[in-house]
Write a structure and sequence with these properties.
The chain is mostly beta strands. The protein has a single domain (6-78), classed as OB fold (Dihydrolipoamide Acetyltransferase, E2P) (Beta Barrel), CATH 2.40.50.140. 0% of the residues lie in helices and 55% in strands. Strands 1-2-3-5-4 form a five-stranded mixed β-barrel.
């Protein structure tokens, strides 16, 4: 097994060509104050699956593909309802 990081998140933007913005949310407990903290991170990922906004995707770390694109969409975990697109229309 390789040491690449794998995460899941939701697609928030797909306006770029073959690139999607994925928001990764994380919930953890603060080590000192014990309060539940919600944090989110937005990363750009290379997309060959034609993902739509709202899809839940699994992304994997890769070599640098551009200035700020270091992730690749590995699979679509769950498609959003009604995201069937017509090719060539």
């Amino acid at each position: 097994m390789n040491t690449r990081r794998r995460m899941t998140g939701f697609v928030t933007s797909n306006k770029m060509t073959k690139t999607v913005v994925v928001e990764i949310t994380r919930t953890y407990q603060h080590p000192l104050y014990r309060k539940v903290v919600h944090s989110s991170k937005r990363v750009k990922a290379h997309d060959e699956f034609n993902c739509q906004v709202g899809d839940e995707v699994a992304i994997v770390e890769s070599r640098p593909l551009s200035r700020d694109k270091f992730w690749v969409v590995e699979s679509v975990v769950r498609r959003v309802a009604g995201s069937e697109t017509v090719e060539g229309a």
